[in-house]
Amino acid sequence: MITVRREGEGHVAEIVLDRPEAMNAISTAMAQELGDATRELAADPQVRCVVVTSSHEKAFCVGADLKERNGFSDADLIAQRPIARAAYTGVLDLPMPTIAAVDGFALGGGSEIALSCDIIVAGESATLGLPEVSVGVIPGGGGTQLLQRRIGWGKAARAIFSAQKFTAARAAELGFVEELVPAGQARDRALELAEQIAENSPIGLRNAKKAMRLGADADLHAGLEIEDACWRATAFSPDRAEGVRAFAEKRAPRWPGA
């Protein structure tokens, strides 16, 4: 049974979480499919932006499949771990810009999938949070690292240590979510934003993301060196030549790069 689908044939691709009977709880099979989907997209030179969505109107993803895990031995849990990590890091490491479209519940691993994206668009009815300590584990899909980088140490510590859940409005106030939209409209807005992003240079988009990601934890001097390397990789590309030419000719660019 397919639980993760890829949709879209142009420059914008969707990763659709599609296990509605379990509110997209992440089973081992679903984690494997998410990792496979991200590997496929990462290698596709035509894709300029990726939107992660859900087929369930009331849930983006409720986190790990605890019913499956309830039957796990320690050996089973150890065997699942690299599959789960590859799913989350697959989203995080996509070279093109990524947007999470969150409506309904995004808890635990669901919030971690969203946090692995560059931008989160949430419907007003969304609920987000990392409640893992309430069931005896910790966020293990990047949550302890990604949330603090978005909202700061103290706010992230309070949220994680107290297993706090956020309304979409509160998440937006904290900077957990970049854009708040009416309930049920997160996917439409995310796709609209993705189309706007995809109008830009594919080489420029990938190198801008690379510079931001690699420089995020570097000191300023090292970050500027990273930026310079990414600038050089872009400035001497066919995209730069086409961009300047299109500007001079007052027309839309026809990007050759990927």
TrEMBL record:
Keywords: Lipid metabolism, Lyase. Gene3D superfamilies: 2-enoyl-CoA Hydratase, Chain A, domain 1, Lyase 2-enoyl-coa Hydratase, Chain A, domain 2. CDD domains: crotonase-like. One of its GO terms (biological process) is fatty acid beta-oxidation. The keyword Signal does not apply. It catalyses: a 4-saturated-(3S)-3-hydroxyacyl-CoA = a (3E)-enoyl-CoA + H2O; a (3S)-3-hydroxyacyl-CoA = a (2E)-enoyl-CoA + H2O. Belongs to the enoyl-CoA hydratase/isomerase family. This is enoyl-CoA hydratase. It comes from Calidifontibacter indicus.
